[in-house]
Structure formats: C-alpha cells, structure tokens
Task: inverse folding
C-alpha cells in the first residue's frame, strides 16, 4: 500500500469538491441548464484572467489554446518574435512554423529569464514583427519571464501572446492591467481539473486582429466560438463534466481569494527552494524562479531518472523530470493548484529519504526544517 | 484553502477504491447479486479474524457488536470480569451492567496493560466467572492489553470477549490460534470504511453458549443472523453500500498482505514514538504502546484542547484528544487503516509547528528526522 502524492506540474491533484461536481449526472449542452453554468464560469474566468473580455473555454489541451492564439491572429509569412527558453518556448516556435509564419527564434539559456533589453533590440531591428510570443512561467525550466516588462514595450507595438499554462492561477497575470493581448492556459494546472480544457482570453486589439488574420482555422475559430459562448452555448460539443468541475474549482478559488491563492503558491515555492538550499542542492532558476515548480539540480553523477522512478515506485511521490538537455540532471517539484504546506513537507522529506538511499549525504529533517520556517508564516 | 489530514483513530481516511465502490448503484439485498458479495466479504473477514467460523456483519457501530457479544453469551446475574483500563473498558462494564450481569471491575491505570497475574488471581478467587472482557487495543489510552497471554488462562475457563475495534487489521489477533471466544470490530478503523458496520466472530464454544444464554436480544440475535448470513442474506436490511466498500477494502488488504499491513502499522507507530521522544515529549503508554495510535503527553501547562483546535483549524490536521482525566493532557496520533509513511511526516511536522506556536521550544525537523530513520526501513 503506497499512497500517491502527485507533485508534478500537471496534471495536478483534484479536490473532492471538483471530483464530486464532475460526477454529476450528464446534461445536454444545448439547454438553459448548461447555459447558466457556462455563464457562471465565464464570469469566474474573466476575474482570473483580469479582463473584461471573453475568456473562451475550448475542448483542447493547453497546446490547442496556443495554436488557437496563433491561427486567429496572424496571416501567412507574418513575422513573429518567439522567446524560446525551454520546451514551451519551442512549442510556440513549432506552432508558428507549422502555420507558415516567419519566426525569429530568440533563444534564452534554459533556466534564465529573457532580458527585456534583448526583446527591445529585436523589435527595433525588426519593425515588421507582428507578435511576441512568450511563456509567463516556462514549466520545463521552472523559470519566469518578465511578462509585465515586455508588455510595456509591446503595448503600442506588436501583439503580446502569453502562454500562461503554469502561471494563470499561480501568480498574477492581469491581462488588461499589464497589457497582454492573448493569454492561454489549460485545465490541469492551477485550475485543479483533469486535462481536457483550454482557455484563451484576447484583448480588444487582438479581437480586431482575428478579423484580419488569414491563417486557416476551423475548430479553433475564436470568432465563431465567441459568438456561441456569448449566447450560452459552444461552437462544438463542450466537455460538460469538466465544466461542472470548472465551476466548482473557480468557486474554491474565489472563496480562498486570488491574493491568497497567489500567496500560497509563492510560499510553497519559497519553502521548497529554502529546503533544497538547506540540503546543499542548487536551483535551476535561482534568479527568476517560478512559483509553479522548483527545479532542483541533482548532485553530480546522480541518475535523475532512477531517482524519480524510485520516488514514484517506492514512496508514491511523483515529481517531474528534466527535459532534453536537463534530463536526469534536475527534478521539478510542483506547487501548482490543489497543494498546501504539507505537500511541501511530503516532497522534501521524501526527497531527503530518496537522496540518502542514493548515497547523497543527507541530514534528515534539515530540508524539512528550512521549509517549516517559511510554511509557518501563515499560521496565526 | 486548508487540506485536511484525518489522523484520529476513527473515522479514518477512506481510499478512493473504497469510495468508488460505495458510489456504485444500489442493488436489492435479497438477490443473488448481493449474496455473492456477502459470501465474498465473509471469506475475507474469516481470514482477517483468524477463524474458520462465521464473522457476522451487523448494521451497527462497534458498540453494537460489543452489546451483541454480551447479550448473546450470558444470562442474568452471571458474573463477568471486566478489565477496565480506559473508556472502552468502561464501555464493556456499562453494557454488562445494563444487561444485569454481576461485574467485577478490574481497574487498570490508564495507559498501562493489565497484569496477567492479576487476571489469574481474580479467576482463582471467583471460579464462577463466566466471561472475561478486555480490549486488545484500548483506543482511549493507546495501550495494548496482553490478550494472547490472557487467552492462555481462559482457554479452559470462562469465555474471553475481546474488543478488537482498533486491533483487528492493525495487529494480529488470530481468534483460533490464540483462543479468543468473541472478537468484535467496527468498520471505521483498519477496515478503511465509514462508520456503520459492526463485525463479530465467535468460537465454537461461544456459539454453543448462544443457545443457553438468557439475556434478551432481538436485533442482535446472532443465531438468527448467522442463519441468514449463511444463506447469503441478512436478518435485517444490511448496509448495502458499506458492504460494497467492505469488499473493496478487504481486497486491498489481501493484496497488500496482512503481514505487511501489520508491519506498516507497527512501523508508523514506532516512527511516531521516536519522533515524540526526539522532541522531548513523553508517551502515555510507553511500556505497552498500541500500533493503532500514539498517546503523546503534552508539556506541563499546555492546553491540549486549544492545541488540537489549532492543529485542526489552522493546519487541517485532526488528531484525537485525551478523554476524561487525560483531557487536555495528551493528544492521540493515529496510524489506523489507510495511512502511510508520509501521514507520519505530516503529523510530526504539523505537531512541531503547532508546539512552537504554543511556545514550546522545538527544533524544526528534529521529530521528522527521528521518524524518517524508521520510515526509511521499508524502502529497498
């Protein structure tokens, strides 16, 4: 009997309130009953995205919402600047290339943030850039990019498309306040749902662009989707049960209060970083860490894949691995969604035990203690 | 958002496998479908109780099963020896008195085990004693009584009635091997179910006594119940959903293997005791601790009720309080049922933080480290 602890950056644990909501009896999606639920979640999503505009609910993964962003805003051969500091930066690039855009691949060392100055230089050198694409939180490297600062440059220039998959609901990314043109996320992260829903919000000028954009799209045609969802329906069959769950998870987030949600994520991440440091381990994104997940550098010579298998199979703890060039060299401990102080304690104590089993000199409780010093902050 | 950790000795956490089973569509209880399920759980219960005889499933709490034990085996004014070392020893006494038995109240200091020698002396001084009633694990004091040794004396004398509510499924209490005449338990402990089911197993000589016993009973008439359950039904309407769950929980225990189940409980309890000791806290039942729960003595002057409220309301951790004279002076940390290594880590780290908040000098991680040293034992 090994209890399971899902501490990867998505899918994330699902609260009982959401599981129960999703278990509710199926209803038809072209009914006033469904329209009422959709209207309710649309309001919640606007608050979460920080926009007065529609946030559309798609039946897709987060990648689907990223594709929708690209295919609805650009025309063939238009030039875009892609900030590429990890797997999801690469994904923006792949989507743009698949749709025949001209891409500038702004490579950023994995774990680092893009420099705003560099973005500015590219925009100055290429006044024909129509869009800048970036991750708010680059899940693969656990690094944040300075979206707010980039938005100050793009506000009067190209569109700013932000992948908020492990940012929305984790840290503030208010679209209107910051000047973000497109913000996308998926259901299986901070929204505490299973995978299956994509979300996309557009600014007024982004909506204007959807009429001019000539890239082909059908399933992800946001104009049609907006028209349908404003009428309380969806262009194509919506994922009804997931939307039941979404209503429940948005309600939970509202009840907790978004400020507290963000503070909780921040606190868990700080506690995990303090724990890793106390154990003598380095951090991948030490200068610009995401509160969504902490990238912990493993000791030289340690086989990260084996360590993760061990944690999962012997202890029931699922962390995420490093990707591509980071494979085996880091682990990613997530703090996204339905997680709290004791998830950090479980993560750190489990890591301590696994590291010891793998021959790394660990003083038990040392990482946990460092985490406790921070986790106790909230307690009154 | 405060995640909940139910670490009291019942009700205990319920695995998803069991929750899902209980959510299954209702069936009628006088059908071959139900008979098949009942037959299956009856086999599992026999293995768990260590008996070839029937283990009957009652719609009752554990106390109902205790009452059934008394009312089915004795006649008015018969003399019984009640080993009374806590709230549940008192309960045996209350039941016997309510049914008009003559009781010898063998008081045992709370937290201590009864001395086998004392039991022997009482039996020698009172050859007319018809039954000895005892707890295997006295939940209120987290102490074990030496049931196996007592059974060696009673084997050829009075009946031995054992309250196994926090023992069955936690530690071995094999009825036939040890010579236990009646063993009872409830659903909300090691069986990982909600409250609502009582279980009772009888030895051959106990079954013989049910025919001679003259105490009044109807709902708990075990002769009728046995006849019905042997035919695949139940005398009165059974708790169908709970029995769905029971099938699932017995299957989980079988898959883990009873030896491993017992070893897991023992390990969690040892880890918790080591943690408390490392934190400088005393144990209530230091000489004879139950693996079901650990009774931790609080520092002088600390208000245990407030500490428990704080743990529950601020951290989401539910421990159990001390009862009667122990109220406010101890906490009970449970290890019963669906619990594993990281439940101990959560319990101990939470206790560390709460104690610090209450002014007790705690070095964070010290208790956790002591627990980790033991919890790591199982890891290969």
Result:
């Amino acid at each position: 009997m090994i209890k399971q602890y899902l501490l990867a950056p998505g899918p994330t644990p699902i609260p009982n309130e959401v599981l129960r909501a999703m278990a509710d009896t199926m209803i038809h999606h072209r009914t006033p009953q469904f329209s009422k639920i959709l209207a309710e979640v649309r309001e919640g999503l606007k608050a979460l995205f920080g926009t007065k505009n529609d946030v559309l609910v798609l039946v897709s993964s987060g990648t689907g919402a990223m594709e929708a962003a690209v295919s609805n805003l650009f025309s063939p051969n238009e030039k875009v600047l892609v900030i590429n500091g990890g797997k999801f930066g690469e994904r923006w690039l792949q989507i743009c290339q698949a749709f025949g855009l001209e891409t500038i691949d702004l490579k950023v060392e994995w774990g680092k943030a893009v420099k705003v100055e560099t973005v500015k230089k590219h925009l100055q050198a290429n006044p024909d850039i129509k869009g800048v694409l970036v991750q708010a939180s680059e899940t693969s490297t656990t690094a944040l990019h300075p979206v707010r600062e980039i938005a100050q440059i793009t506000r009067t220039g190209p569109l700013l498309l932000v992948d908020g998959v492990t940012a929305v609901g984790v840290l503030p990314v208010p679209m209107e306040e910051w000047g973000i043109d497109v913000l996308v996320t998926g259901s299986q992260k901070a929204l505490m749902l299973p995978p299956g829903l994509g979300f996309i919000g557009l600014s007024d000028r982004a909506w204007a662009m959807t009429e001019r954009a000539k890239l082909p799209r059908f399933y992800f045609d946001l104009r049609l989707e907006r028209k349908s969802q404003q009428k309380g329906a969806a262009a194509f069959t919506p994922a009804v049960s997931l939307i039941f769950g979404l209503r429940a998870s948005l309600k939970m987030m509202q009840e907790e209060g978004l400020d507290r949600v963000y503070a909780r994520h921040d606190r868990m991440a700080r506690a995990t970083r303090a724990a890793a440091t106390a154990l003598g381990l380095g951090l991948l994104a030490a200068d610009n860490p995401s509160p969504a997940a902490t990238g912990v550098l493993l000791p030289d010579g340690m086989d990260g894949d084996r360590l993760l298998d061990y944690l999962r199979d012997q202890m029931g703890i699922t962390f995420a691995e490093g990707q591509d060039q980071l494979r085996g060299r880091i682990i990613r401990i997530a703090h996204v969604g339905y997680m709290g102080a004791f998830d950090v304690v479980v993560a750190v104590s489990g890591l301590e035990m696994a590291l010891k089993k793998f021959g790394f000199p660990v003083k038990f409780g040392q990482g946990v203690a460092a985490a406790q010093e921070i986790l106790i902050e909230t307690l009154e």
